[in-house]
Design brief:
This protein is α+β, with helices and mostly antiparallel strands. The protein has helices at about 5-15, 20-60, 80-85, 150-155, 200-205, 215-220, 240-250, 260, 265-290, 290-300, 305-310, 315-355, 375-405, and strands at about 65-70, 75, 90-105, 110-115, 130-135, 140, 145-150, 165-170, 185-200, 210, 225, 230-235, 255-260. The radius of gyration is 32 Å and the shape is elongated. It comes from Rhodocytophaga rosea. One of its GO terms (biological process) is lipoprotein localization to outer membrane.
């Protein structure tokens, strides 16, 4: 065993006397352990939130979305669809028309985002897994049906069992050059019956309804214009490769985005919050490491006689410096390893049993989501090593320099 490590272990594990230095060393160890545990847990929670949002988007958005770079609508030609379908790795292409619409049911009314989708859209995501009432369908025996969010249903107070009164969907008559809002010709109107209710997340539940593409096309009078194309890739295909091939095919007039890019601002916000949390807890760990600085400084004063003997026996100033830096590393690593283990256990318990609840009834998740990543544990360990190096270096250097001056 290395001599500096052996002596540092003797100093740390010595039980001959409990003095003030031992107390500060233990406080340092506990502080580093608690800070490490908290950092591991918080980073894992942010990972869980990130995965949660990705899961929610997976039930609503397709793997790849194609939309116009400029403007809301683009002209869809048979040649364009045929060219996209020939791209290797594409399983299906769903057509989407989306815009704001005004809904009324009896005396209730609300504004929603109406999404007219082709039939294959329902098979591209996990929308069927979030249906809480009714049957997922858009057309049956030439009858149009709407699938609405639970928030929209609550605002309209519309039951799925009402076979006598339908929901009225209103949309501005864009064919008129000048629109008199009080004129009966200012709006186009169609009736539709609800078939199912979904519950994903409040943003979607309160704002969206799905209707057949033909219904939206007729109401909005868009003709061959679409707002987006939703693409599902074949199992095992590389989404990045398919996305790159599509962008090369379509050129600069179209924007091809994967799920993360469709919600880039939200995911970026989560990552920025995670970064600031990491910086904050690293600062807390740095403050906790001041105890290591003070304990090593006092240990150097307390062990001056031992250091002088070691120096007289041939020890160099570099050896003395390594001795005290090793002592600081032992204190910090003991606390860090304990904190990492405790953080892992707490995250595992939360991940497995959902011990800590969000404290509210939600259709999304009942307990705080957690996902552990090796990179977070490695980052935490590297952060502690860096902090401990700076906290231990100056007392260790001072101890070595004091011996040089004295002798």
């Amino acid at each position: 065993m290395n001599l500096s490590i052996f002596i540092a272990r003797r100093y740390f594990f010595s039980r001959k006397k409990k003095n003030f230095i031992n107390i500060i060393s233990n406080i340092s160890m506990v502080g580093v352990g608690v800070g490490t545990m908290a950092l591991v847990i918080v980073l894992s929670v942010f990972n869980g939130l990130e995965d949660l949002f990705r899961g929610l988007y997976g039930k609503f958005n397709a793997e790849i979305q194609v939309k116009a770079t400029e403007g809301k609508f683009f002209e869809l030609s048979p040649g364009l669809i045929a060219g996209i379908e020939k791209v290797d790795g594409i399983e299906s292409v769903a057509q989407v028309i989306e815009d704001n619409a005004f809904l009324t049911y009896r005396d209730a009314q609300t504004i929603v985002k109406m999404r007219g989708v082709s039939d294959n859209f329902l098979h591209q995501n996990g929308l069927d897994s979030v249906i809480i009432a009714g049957e997922l369908m858009l057309q049956d025996k030439n009858v149009d049906y709407a699938v609405m969010g639970v928030g929209v249903q609550n605002m309209l107070s519309v039951p799925l069992s009402d076979n006598f009164e339908s929901i009225q969907v209103w949309y501005p008559n864009n064919t008129k050059k000048t629109i008199d809002l009080n004129s009966p010709n200012a709006y186009l109107r169609k009736n539709i019956r609800p078939s199912a209710v979904f519950a994903i997340e409040q943003q979607y539940d309160n704002n969206y309804i799905f209707v057949p593409l033909s219904f939206a096309q007729e109401l909005m009078q868009t003709g061959n214009k679409r707002t987006s194309l939703e693409i599902k890739t074949t199992p095992g295909s590389s989404i990045k490769r398919v996305q790159a091939d599509l962008q090369k095919l379509l050129g600069n007039k179209f924007l091809v985005q994967n799920r993360d890019q469709q919600h880039a601002s939200l995911l970026r916000a989560i990552q920025i919050e995670k970064l600031f949390v990491y910086i904050t807890f690293s600062f807390i760990l740095a403050i906790a490491s001041f105890n290591i600085f003070f304990s090593l400084t006092m240990l150097a004063i307390d062990k001056k006689k031992d250091v002088s003997v070691l120096y007289a026996m041939g020890a160099t100033s570099g050896f003395i410096r390594r001795l005290f830096m090793t002592e600081g590393a032992i204190i910090a690593c003991t606390g860090a390893i304990t904190g990492i283990v405790l953080g892992f256990i707490i995250c595992w318990l939360q991940q497995t049993f959902g011990i800590v609840s969000m404290g509210m009834q939600t259709s999304v998740v009942d307990a705080y989501p957690v996902r552990m990543r090796f990179s977070d544990f490695a980052l935490t360990a590297c952060t502690i090593m860096l902090i401990v190096f700076f906290a231990s270096y100056f007392p260790a250097r001072k101890a070595a320099n004091d011996v040089d001056i004295k002798l």
